[in-house]
Amino acid sequence: MTMLLIRRGILRRSFCRSFSTSQSRLSDRKGLVLGVFEKEGEGHHLTEAAAGFDKTISGKLSELLNISGPSLKKGKSRLFYGLHEDFPCVAVVGLGKAEAGVCGAENWDAGKENIRAAVSTGCRLLQDLEVKLVEVDGCGDAQSAAEGAVLGLFNYDQLKTKKKTQVTTQLNGSVDPTGWAKGVAYGEGQNLARLLMEAPANHITPTTFANIIEEKISSNAHQVTIHKRSKAWIEEQQMGAFLSVSRGSEEPPLFLELHYNGSPDSTQPPLLLVGKGITFDSGGISLKPSQSMDAMRADMGGAATVCASVVTAAALKLPVNLIGLAPLCENMPSGKATKPGDVVKAKNGKTIQVDNTDAEGRLILADALCYGHTFNPRAIVNVATLTGAMDVALGSAATGVFTNSDWLWEQLHKASVVTGDRVWRMPLFQHYTNR
Question: Which GO terms describe its molecular function (predicted)?
Answer without folding.
Answer: manganese ion binding; metalloaminopeptidase activity
